[in-house]
Each structure stands twice: as C-alpha cells, then as structure tokens.
Specification:
RNase_HII
Length: about 220
Amino acid sequence: MTVATPRLTLERKLLGECDLIISLDEVGRGALAGPVAVGAAVMDAVGARRRVPEGLRDSKLVTEKRRPEVAARAAAWVQASAVGWASAAEIDEVGIMRALGLAASRAVQAVVDQGVGVENALVLLDGNHDYVSKVHPVPLRVRPVIKADRDCASVSAASVIAKVARDGLMTELHGSHSEYQWDRNKGYASLEHREAIRAVGLSPFHRASWAITDAPTLF
C-alpha cells in the first residue's frame, strides 16, 4: 500500500492570510503512563517553498528506527520547533483535554521564547477540536484540521518531533521503572505493561485517574 506523502498545499494557502503558521500535533494521549506531549513546528512563506524533507510522514507512519533522523531533518527544515508537556499528575487533576491544552500552550510559548511572534500567526492543529484557545493566555487564531498530521507537512514535522521527544523520555524513565517495559511500550497499554501494573501497582508516572487495569491492549 502506498503511503501518501504530506504536502504544503494548505500551508501555502493559509500563508496568504497570515505571516506564520504554528503547526501542532499531540502524542501520548492514549497512554497509561507518562506525559502527553504536543509538538510545535513554525512555517513561514519562505519555508513553505522549500522541499518537504525526505521520509517525513505522520509519526505513526515512520518506523521507530527511522524517526530520530526524520525528526532531525524536520527540525532543521522548519523555522522553529518545540515540544510542550503536561504530566500524568496534571492529566489526573484537570483531565486529558485540558492537559492537551496546557501542553499545546507550552509548546506555543516555547517557540515564542525563540523569537516567534504570534500577532499575525495561525495555529494549525491536527484534529477536530480546538483545545488550545481556552488555555493559552494570549488570543490565538486556531484552525483544527482532521488528518492534518497525515496531509500537512508542517504538522507531520510537529508530530514526529514530539514523538521522538516523548519516546526518548519514556525510555529514560524505563531505567528506574524497568518492570513496566516502557522502553518497548512507551507507556501504552501493552499486555506486559498491564501485567506489571497488576503485579507491582502504579508508579508516580501512571495516570491514576484512568481505569488502567481494564484498558484495552493496543499492541
């Protein structure tokens, strides 16, 4: 099966209406453990005329082995990039949608701290729901687009950058919590992960408010 290559068609159109696009995509939303992460990738009209990096796809369509090199090319291709985080404790406290908003707002603030202005920027968000505007302290123009991580190259860049960052964090956490095999499952509901939870209980990095032991096995 041929995997569609993301393009810059929508970005080029939208850049006729704004100076910058800040593309956002989340990873880790459905995990049992670890933070949720939102990647941000900034694109301007000059960048939108450059060739899409080789191998760039939605992170779910890039093999784990290849993701780091693709993420590095994506980060070098866009004008700025960052990853925002919301912890498992925050997810427990405010719920997953609010936590996504916090992570997205932090990602936007991180690129602002790199010198990106949001005065005439548009936020291009993967999905069908704007979870950013209600959280970010400064008004933002947000355009949710279904399957943007698959179809829009700048969102694909945000996706793979966030995925590599979160996978790296979960691999680091595996060092002190090896019973959960986070180096393999990255905090998602694998059979080995759920069996470890039943055997030893939850870690401080688990989303304790979730019905974890009843969660479906994802792989």
